[in-house]
């Protein structure tokens, strides 16, 4: 009997093994039984489309976004000790790049292979291709719906290629999936020149725009899905990136060639690329206006005791970002921001008493705080009326700043007479914090970072610079024994950013002029500032700066960095402008945050040394990938 049982089990195992081999040869995604069942009907097909969206939604975790973690806007003093992320890496992987820890053996933010906080973009593209190859199958799917869903998949496929393109420069283009019986040489795909890559992304976007709805009307069921307006805005950004110095006439990379000897970067600057980007920006702005996009109007919750005009302006500036799905947000992802406790100070005794409530580790460097203008709307080192030389001396809060700085509290002079966006976006020792359970700005909470609740409790839960990204924490959020967090979805694009992108393109094509000024001034007006020409003429030590293309370019770049601060945009902008190396040429500085006296606290110290050179503008491909595909070439300088 035992012998018969062994024979039966052996036969069964053989049948299972053969069956398993056959299943393996089918080459279907791990989470899908068969392609036939995935596209058997409209419901299953839509579920597969949402699977294509999953990689995009994962990008709302700003720790994955190089535009946030490697921008110089933020530093993180210690690892997050988070072992739940991809590859078992900590959530500090992106921040660690600025410490000089990037490498080709095991790259950080690896979006090529999907490790160290990266997502495998090639798998995401493969899912999109499978969807496009099979979306015609479900018999109950109406033609108009099939076209729309295919357009969404094309957009996602384009955006995933674009993400890789920004990170790695020349990449392979995977327009269709390779068949199961592909030869070894077919599998070993080659990188394409960057202009070919950009043109491919734009072609996919153009194809998608035709069949996408201009806006999402059924928000309850379809919020977060791609519209034609989103696709047009992304197209504008793609073309502006192609026209920018990193990709347009970049002499640092003209020697990078593929295995066939062809140049992978353009050899000369092409001004016409800015013209294409300018037209795309104009079309995107028109589409946004037609879809109802407009500047944010403050929407308040209940319980307000007193609110001044100054506080209302600050909350409006902040709310444009944290009040989800408002008309100013052109593109917002569904997944919610989960790191408010990293961006918040401890402003109450209750928050300080709960050691797990607030970590405060997202630390804004002093240099980033000094990026914001004076109240006159010009840089702090240009304002003739602002005491730049003595900005680190102490001054007590006064009546004129009562809604920004605690009256009578000593803080540095650099925190006085600044523009409203500074007080809306950045918090510091002595600054007023409207919210966190107190909605009375006549008697508000404030940050006591020297010897109060916001002082570091230990070597783990502390802010390393003494500046917090206030913009990322809605006023309704309260931390303490019973924390109540006002969650919000992460915006990828806002209307004001698109306006400034258009102004940038206009200046690059035509130089300074009233049309350029108008688009910048629309952004500045909401911030309570005079127009560009008036501000520079009246207050700047360089009054003619706005009258030259080079001068206005610098103004636009700084305006865009201020307006989109901490939104995951500035890092990408600084890369495409080839300005990130300048920003990170000096160490990240802050105050002596562990000192418990005012004079001792306000001693400048290096919070982190930075390592960023020419090679860091693009990411290395993992060495293992180069071994398995000898047709790939390593990113230059790695």
UniProtKB/TrEMBL annotation:
The lineage of its organism: Bacteria, Pseudomonadati, Bacteroidota, Chitinophagia, Chitinophagales. It comes from Chitinophaga rhizophila. PROSITE patterns: PROKAR_LIPOPROTEIN. Belongs to the SusD family. This is RagB/SusD family nutrient uptake outer membrane protein. Its main location: membrane. The keyword Nucleus does not apply. Gene3D superfamilies: 1.25.40.390. It holds the Pfam family SusD_RagB. It comes from the Bacteria. It is found in: Cell outer membrane. Residues 119-191 form the SusD-like N-terminal domain. InterPro entries: SusD-like_N, SusD_RagB_dom, TPR-like_helical_dom_sf. Keywords: Cell outer membrane, Membrane, Signal. SUPFAM superfamilies: TPR-like (SSF48452).
